[in-house]
Amino acid sequence: MRSTSSSGAPPPLGCCRTGPVFLTDRRARVVLPPADLDPASGRARLYYRRAAECFETATAGLPGGPWTLHQLRHSALTHTAEDGANTSTLLAYSGHTSVASLARYARVSPEALARWQEGRDPAARRR
Fold it and tell me: Is the sign of the CA dihedral 98, 10, 38, 80 positive or negative?
């Protein structure tokens, strides 16, 4: 995991790209929707409350921790915005319908804003 960003967001997950992030200890014994299963292990998604407990325990020793799943959501949106996603993409990704509510979640750091502005500077592009 990366360290805390300057915006105060928790670090993003570096290992998971698809499927559930928080999994049970055993394979699922009942038929579940594919989105609730890890295709590699067959293990099922944890319930939100248990996942929140596990995440807070796992992040307790990190700087600024323990972190919550809600803060992880903020972090995901912030990193997506810092990576250059436009407003329409961020709204769709987050499920928000209002730019005002999205702005409370995605807080781009001053460093990321400076990088973005530098890339759009016509004088810098001519050099």
Answer: positive
> Per the structure block, which two tokens stand in for 101?
């509510």
In the structure encoding, which two tokens stand for residue 70, read together? Answer: 């809600």
Please give the Cα distance from 127 to 86 (Å, whole number): 27
**What does the alpha-carbon distance between residue 92 and residue 96 come to, in Å, rounded to a whole number?**
7
The token pair at 80 is 């997506």
Q: Residue 37 carries which DSSP code? A: B
Q: What are phi and psi of 98, to 5 degrees?
A: -120, 135
Q: d(Cα 19, Cα 34) in Å, to the nearest integer?
A: 9
From residue 12, alpha-carbon distances to 58, 67, 76, 86, 88 in Å are: 13, 11, 6, 19, 22
Full pLDDT tens readout for the chain, 127 residues:
333 444 444 444 555 566 677 888 888 888 888 888 888 888 888 888 999 998 999 999 999 989 999 888 888 899 898 888 899 999 998 888 999 988 888 888 899 888 888 887 777 666 6
d(CA 55, CA 12): 12
> What's the whole-model pTM score?
0.60
